Amino acid sequence: MTSELQRQIARIGLGDHLCLLYREPAEVLPAAAHFLREGLEQGGHALYVIDDHAPEVVIAALEHAGIDVERERERGALRFLTAEEYCPRGEFEPQRMLARFRALGDEMAAAGAPLVHAAVEMTWALTSEAPLDLLADYECWGNDIFQHVSGASLCMYNQERFPPAAMERLLRAHPIVVLGDEVAPNPFYEPPEVCFGSEADPALRFRWMVEQLRRARLERREREALAERAHALAAEQEARQAAEEMNRAKSRFLAFMSHELRTPLNAIMGYTELLTREVPGPISEAQRHHLERITAGSRHLLDLIDEVLDLSRVEAGRIELRPEACDGARLALDTVALVEPQARERELDLVAHIPDEPLPLRTDAPRVRQILLNLLSNAVKFTDTGSVTLEVVVEEEGLIFRVSDTGVGIDAAELEAIFDPFHRARSPGTGIRPGAGLGLAVSRRLAALLGGALSVESTPGRGSTFTLTLPLGAPSALQTA
To answer: Residue 296 in contact with residue 265, Cβ under 8 Å?
Structure first.
């Protein structure tokens, strides 16, 4: 049974009278089981008339549909009838049977059931030698029953056993048809007043016609919506595949360009170092100054290439993390030592508030060092006077690294944008900051990959604080690595 058929059966309402057509007995059970389950889930009762299957086969199908048969029978919510019980004395007596069914509905209502769902295997009509024309009238009268009993009925007809002429007449007696995977209004249905040749009530007939139109329109709209969703999903999948291929192409291009750019840059830096050491011969102070600027520019360009590659790998999900046991305190001290010459050159105080005891972490230490180095270097670069501080503390959220500075700060409107690739923030009163705008973008993405987060707070004119939060490792991590 398809999920679409389950969905359509779930929409069956009170007073609905359905005809399910099947060729093989096994085809009927899944639909009937889900029909009864809907009634039970709505707090009602369920009735199944067994005739084309063995009782144990019906019970197995109901349980497969999620019905606890034993429990529902114990509380009186689920009943089974045999063909002999449904058609007593082996004689087809339509009015007596309908009266019994109405009484059964009243009995269930008195027991507190708000509705009843009845599923009936109709092959009993053949064995009881019921006149098939009268059987069609019986079905028409059944429509009237469901105007007074809250519930729905599913009549199941084996097309291989009923004569075609009889099926044509019986089909006209049901407002709704279940055929294969489709539950739909029956365009061949004729209301009882038409079948019996009596004059129809125009208002009743008009309401019925409007209801059929409403159902047909609802079915059409739902089919169109399903087709539209399927088309949107296919387009989304296609777009995702195209984006992934573009990312792979970008990564291949950047890897190639990295190699091509690094080769001449390394040559430039190598020859510059030889000249600075005066290997070819003595140089003047002015020449030394120019060579130092060439070296600094080359190193900056190499750093930029590394940042672009890191961003590309992170966005493509190709960053390979290597978690290991490490000491967060030692990691922070080592990173401060790397930035110290830069701070001293700018005459800034570099302050470290780091606990003396080890702070166990299980993480990718080089990636954490990369983030901290970027934060500390930025703080030194964008602070003219005052200090840069690294504070490391253990809090409920995890291990916290706070990098604070006394620089010009960042405008409130820029606080989230600074983490976007290639975004260069405007410092209050000083214009656009130098740099490529990649370091913070890479750092935030790396922090997320490490299971942590990177955030910022800033007050223009007073400085900024960047906070890196990482999950703590087990206390024994350093020993068990």
So the answer is: no
